[in-house]
Write a structure and sequence with these properties.
By secondary structure, the chain is of the alpha/beta class. The structure holds flavin-adenine dinucleotide. Flavin-adenine dinucleotide binds near residues 32 and 130.
Length: about 550
């Protein structure tokens, strides 16, 4: 059998290597249009930023190495330009011109290409993308003598690129069309990252678009839709990727909005043609929606699975994806798994949302820092999505929650999870257990919540009871709120009842913990009460600049 693989990086090379491990007889040919295979695209920003010093460290494998160790016929600088699926023949283009190559089975793992929006001036030589090793080498060379950089797009790669520019000492600005950086994050999480970027000295222009690049002798100017003009010696274009599937569509491979449609084994609509990775549409594990997921883990695993299917090992199918992802920004880590509000709303799913700010390990052990954690779960308690931002311990919590989503766990299961603990690593009640406990309290009515985005309506229709200390309240509180520190509440309950005058009581504190204690007292006293999810910390992050409309100091 001859197996031909198009694309020699994550998904493609994973498929080719697995196919070899399962069959010594198969002729395996990998065709890669670029000059490298098996390179670490995920490491490119860290090479530009200087943390990975040597370009060679990015080259995980070479064609010669793959030939020696796996007997793969790897052909670089070879572009597949057409497929004749009737004859099972592909057309190649390389330095010798075009030629044909037959296949028995064909795996497509062509990845995605950078979106280039129709912005005048984007053809400037100062505009760079960051997709390949030559891109990274070119960008690093351009740092010589550069003083300023503009990164267009604040997705995962855009933020990594911005951090790299900042690390290299450039005055760095980020432009993002969406209302906030890292659009898959919820607003209240993204604000924390924004604050960190600003702390690093990176200027953030969110909610605006780049409308033109004016090319100059000495430097370019990026013009924004709000009239801002940003000088740029370097412009990094990182506004997203799109599966580049024209060649395959012409061959009759079915695509939806550019992504190749595959079945649960990775087979396309065309016999003997398979596809994996960024170019394909995956099923969302939570909502079932089909969408491309441009992440390395899913591409690698799908490559392995498709090779299994081709070699007759068909016990396993492609899973739905939770889209678990993580990024470092300065001293913070942000990570997410599963659905966010937008995807849940689009799917018409009903859900609860909770916010908590536990310490990443025991508070009495030196170095404890807060994890800002939020979680969506269904009305049946099933965990649907989670996001976290913090200095430490974010990766572990989101990975546990990713497993929970995959396993179909409910908040009750989270409460029961038996997680490793000693003071330097966690708490006897881990943040994940606490999220489960909160979720259970919400489901059984022990904890009723109100949310930051409803603040104006809440202020208009209820008594806002602030149970923080007087000093905290003086630093900023909701206009018209009543301050009764939670330790005084039992003695001042009648004062609260009188102030509420029949209205519900909307309690808040800094993080939601003290106000929960207050809520239980109010509940026992027969008052109708609800607790601000995540407290003032979440409210300020969720409202951003809008917070000034409702928060007063003094
Ligand atoms: C800068 C950067 C940082 C990233 N960081 C992370 C991260 O931290 N975590 C994470 O999970 N993911 C990350 N990713 C995404 C991850 O790298 C991709 O999801 C993954 O590589 C996709 O694998 P793939 O096989 O589908 O495509 P790729 O790995 O992109 O490989 C596709 C290959 O196919 C080749 N090709 C395309 N068309 C043809 C053709 N017609 N003929 C021959 N060859 C062709 C291309 O040249 C390309 O080399 C990052 C990506 C980039 C660019």
């Amino acid at each position: 059998m001859r197996l031909v693989v198009v694309g020699g990086v994550a998904g493609g090379m994973s498929a080719a290597a697995r196919a070899r491990r399962l069959s010594e007889d198969t002729e395996i040919i990998v065709l890669e249009s670029r000059g490298e295979v098996s390179f670490a695209n995920c490491g490119l920003p860290y090479f530009v930023g200087g943390e990975i010093e040597d370009k060679e460290q990015l080259l995980v494998q070479t064609p010669a190495g793959l030939s020696a160790s796996l007997g793969l016929d790897v052909r670089i600088n070879t572009d597949v330009v057409a497929i004749d699926t009737e004859r099972r023949v592909i057309t190649l283009s390389d330095s010798d011109g075009t030629s044909e190559l037959s296949y028995d089975e064909l795996i497509l793992s062509p990845g995605a290409s950078a979106i280039r929006p129709p912005i005048p001036g984007l053809d400037s030589p100062r505009v760079h993308t960051l997709r390949t090793v030559p891109d990274a080498v070119g960008l690093k060379a351009a740092l010589e003598g550069a003083r300023s950089a503009v990164v267009m797009g604040a997705g995962f790669i855009g933020l990594e690129a911005a951090e790299a520019m900042e690390m290299q000492g450039l005055r760095t600005s980020v432009v993002e069309l969406a209302p906030h950086v890292l659009p898959p994050l919820e607003t209240e999480m993204a604000q924390l990252l924004r604050d960190e970027l600003v702390r690093l000295g990176i200027a953030i222009h969110d909610g605006v678009s780049a409308t033109a690049v004016e090319q100059g002798e000495d430097h370019d100017v990026v013009v924004l839709s709000d009239g801002t003009r940003l000088d740029a010696d370097i412009i990094v274009l990182s506004v997203g990727v799109r599966p580049d599937t024209r060649v395959w569509e012409e061959a009759g491979v079915t695509c939806d909005r550019g992504a190749i449609l595959i079945d649960e084994l990775g087979h396309t609509a065309v016999e003997h043609v398979w596809a994996v990775g960024d170019a394909t549409a995956s099923a969302d594990l939570v909502t079932g929606a089909r969408r491309p997921v441009a992440l390395a883990g899913p591409a690698n695993r799908a490559g392995r699975l498709v090779a299994d299917a081709i070699m007759g090992k068909r016990g396993h199918v492609l899973p739905g994806l939770a889209g678990t992802a993580i990024v470092r920004v300065g001293e913070l880590t942000a990570a997410l798994t599963g659905a966010n509000r937008r995807s849940l709303d689009e799917a018409g799913m009903k859900y609860h949302t909770i916010h908590l700010h536990p310490l990443h390990h025991a508070g009495y052990f030196p170095g404890a820092t807060q994890i800002h954690l939020m979680m969506h779960f269904g009305t049946d308690g099933k965990v649907l999505g989670a996001q976290a931002v913090g200095n430490d311990g974010v990766d572990k919590r989101i990975d546990v929650l990713a497993v929970a989503i995959k396993a179909g766990f409910t908040v009750h299961d989270l409460m029961d999870l038996d997680l490793a603990y000693s003071p330097p690593y966690g708490s006897a009640k881990d943040p994940v257990n606490m999220a489960g406990m909160m979720g259970c309290n919400v489901l059984d009515g022990t904890l009723k919540l109100w949310h930051a985005e409803d603040v104006e309506a809440v202020m208009a229709s209820s008594l806002v009871l602030d149970v923080r200390s007087a000093a905290e309240v003086a630093d900023g509180h909701l206009a018209g709120s009543l301050n009764v520190p939670h330790v005084e509440l039992r003695d001042r309950m009648e004062e609260v009842r009188a102030a509420a005058n029949g209205r519900p009581v909307s309690v808040l504190c800094a993080s939601g913990v003290r106000s929960y204690l207050a809520l239980r007292q109010l509940d026992h006293a027969g008052l109708q009460a609800r607790n601000l999810s995540g407290g003032m910390l979440t409210l300020q992050a969720a409202l951003g600049g809008r917070a000034n409309n409702v928060i007063i100091t003094g």
